[in-house]
Amino acid sequence: MKRLRWIGLLIACAVLAGCAKDDECKVAFHAEISDIGAFSAVATVTHNATNRDPYYGIVVEGSVPDVSAAIAQYISEQREFLEVNKHYQRKNVFKITRLSPEKIYTFIVFGMKDDMQVYGEPDVVVFSTTRSNLEAMEFSNWHIQYKGHVVYDKTDYSLITVYVDEDTIERYFLASLPLREAQKYETTEDLIVQATYDFLDKQKKQSEEDYFLEASEVRTGGTNFYRYLSPGNYVFYAIGINPDGSPTGHYAKSPECAVEKYPYEQTYADLLGDWVISGNGKDYYVTFSERTLNKTLYMTGWGNYPDYTIVLTYNREDGGLEIKSQLVAKDVTIKFSGEESPLSGTLYLMGAYYNSEGKLKNTEESLTLAKAKLESDGTYTFKSGFYVTMSDGKANYNTGMMYYLKGEEKNVLFARLMFPFVMEKQIKWL
Fold it and tell me: What is the value of pTM for the model shown?
């Protein structure tokens, strides 16, 4: 293990983010790597800032010639998960996982404020993992059976059952691998290690902890696993995992299994295609496509803007639909009539209403905007799913939905329809 320091590192930090204050540039981080194994290591980080100053520790495979570029790339790629990986303490010890045996890694610790401004002097440590003594061994106490398509909790899944012999206390998780992916590994050890890393990464994204081995995805006894799978050939593995998140080497493998496309509910299948939404003297031509079979759909064309997609929820019990307020797209640029130049910003679908002065307003909170009933003639009637309390304390049920562009220069409300409105299938004549 060796430590790399650059004389110009402080300057590079300032160039990357621009120090807001001189004292921020005096903050220095220090890292030590210990307990290096084949799959993990322990990082100890100290700094001379306060316990309120956030910082991040990242691991990059290989040596890093440009630390500033590595930090910038990490921020760009992990923007959605930065909050999970944030640290504060002036001294913190944490485990680094997802490492591979006999590899060189670079650990970088750097400060970054909540406004994403990098501060202080990073520290860099290069280290090498050890040789692995992991040996893959098929575990006769685990048995896997693929049982095919089922509907569970109103959702279509493939059911995989793992049977466990009595008195087996080893933890395991289930990996569902397309056959082509499983065949790309040269050894079973490689497959086990990568599947374990992928599993831990999934757990990390769902929790503030690095992983949680008591989650429903980790079991010791026999279990039914429900997986939403695309059509194709699969192989399923039960993979043993230690309390520290490292693989035990034990595994069980299913025979090759063919997963067929799940069957459509008829009312879901009928929704796919082109429709016209009518209300308030307007017609919006929309198209529905499959998102999650028999559960959610994509709708494009709201407001006759074909480039933006809204997600709707389908009710398989009655064929109804539900629309929630949602983020539609980031970094949108739209040219509006009356504007000299296009406007850019983030596009949302939100509730619409008129205030006591007759001005069009948007709702701020997350809401169920509308629910649609499937009528006997095959049309859908969308009715309001919310109301607004006015300044006089009265409830306003005269609501609708619309696009809201939260712009860099100004905000724009557009593509409005007030409830109720009707959706009818477009008939194509041959």
Answer: 0.69
